[in-house]
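Intended use. Records like the one below are meant for learning the mapping from a protein sequence to its folded structure. Do not use them to infer anything beyond what is encoded.
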Amino acid sequence: MNARVPILNLSVGGLLARLALLIIVILWTVPTFGLFISSLRDKDQLAISGWWTALQTTTAYEQARTPAADAQVNIDGQYVIAGSFFEEGDTKRIRSFGGGFLPDNDAIEYLQGEQQGIRDYEPGVPVALEGGGTMTVNADGTFELVSPTPFEFERGQRFFYMAEIPPRFTLENYQEIAGAEGVYQAFLNTLTVTVPATIIPIAVAAFAAYAFSWMDFPGRRFLFYVVVALLVVPLQMALIPLLRVYNGVGIAKTYPGIWLAHTGFGLPLAIYLLRNYIGTLPREIIESAKIDGASHFQTFTKLVVPLSVPALASFAILQFLWVWNDLLVALVFLGKSPDQIVLTSKLRELIGSRADNWEILTSSAFVSIIVPLLVFFALQRYFVRGLMAGSVKGG
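Structure written out for the chain above:
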């Protein structure tokens, strides 16, 4: 019995670990899945219901207005105003209508949470109007307003209706973004900023991390403490002073300026991560290289870099994601001209200063994460390969 206890404990522990992993995966995946579903939904549905109702028919309280009296025609002595409240191809259906200029009674409906006091008329049934005439509204949105006397209202008459909106998936949100002027150029501008701003800090930090780990020089420990201390300094504190320096040397609103800015902001974390990894490499390998007459540069390029692929890939992922999704630094150190504006800033302009076009947020989010996802999965493969190679060489 005692021999079976560890096996039982191991199986229970493994089950709990797998359950915890499953919960973490769900917590990370469900919001992304919901964002993707929302990006494919019709704007009208997106504004009134959540993504989890994407396969259900939703209802919405809306208002409509008849044409003005100048649209009436005389048919056999009757004055008629006819047409449709829906655009061609609209799949909405009217379930009930009333309120506005239509007569009502004790039945109560609600419009946007406010009590309106409208009668629940069924589509297709003529509604007798005060002063004579009828109003007929069909489920497909077509209507007919008939009166024995001429209509005299200069403005169309308003009423309310409850609409049933069937599920509809579309690529219109993506088409709107793809067809917007300057999006493609903003995409290229973002690549122009991100690629150098990822490579430069990795190269500088790798050299610095090797020096902190395997080279003896005065003040090494103090300088490393300074680097660690810089991790807690908010970058917002350095934006204005750094911009003043850039204006003085003439590199403000240029690509080299923002490359250097991202390099400076990313170096503390990069040096800290790489130094911790490079410092754990087997000392026997470094000493063997010295015995064989290798210089520090040769040791670094031929031994340390191949063994440090996991750490380099990890920071490359972090730095690429940070620079690609950055908005604040780009607004400060780059202009908004078509040849400089980055994708995040361009998408913000498409949404509008008052979020008038907020429905494209979901699709724009997926457009902006395509490249980071590709980079992540690509470097993840190299991360695993580098980890295995490093373990073999380290053995």
